[in-house]
Amino acid sequence: MSQLLRVQNFMVSSDGFGAGEGQSLERPFGHADPGEMFSWAGATASWPMRTDSGGSRGLDDYFTRDFSRNIGAEIMGRNKFGPQRGPWQDHEWLGWWGDEPPFHTPVFVLTHHPRPSFTLSDTTFHFVDADPATALDRAREAAGGKDVRLGGGATTVREFLDADLVDTLHVAVAPVKLGSGARLWESPDELLDRFHRDVVPSPSGGVIHHLYWRK
Amino acid sequence: MSQLLRVQNFMVSSDGFGAGEGQSLERPFGHADPGEMFSWAGATASWPMRTDSGGSRGLDDYFTRDFSRNIGAEIMGRNKFGPQRGPWQDHEWLGWWGDEPPFHTPVFVLTHHPRPSFTLSDTTFHFVDADPATALDRAREAAGGKDVRLGGGATTVREFLDADLVDTLHVAVAPVKLGSGARLWESPDELLDRFHRDVVPSPSGGVIHHLYWRK
Question: Where is the Bacterial bifunctional deaminase-reductase C-terminal domain (chains A, B) (predicted)?
Answer without folding.
Answer: 41-186
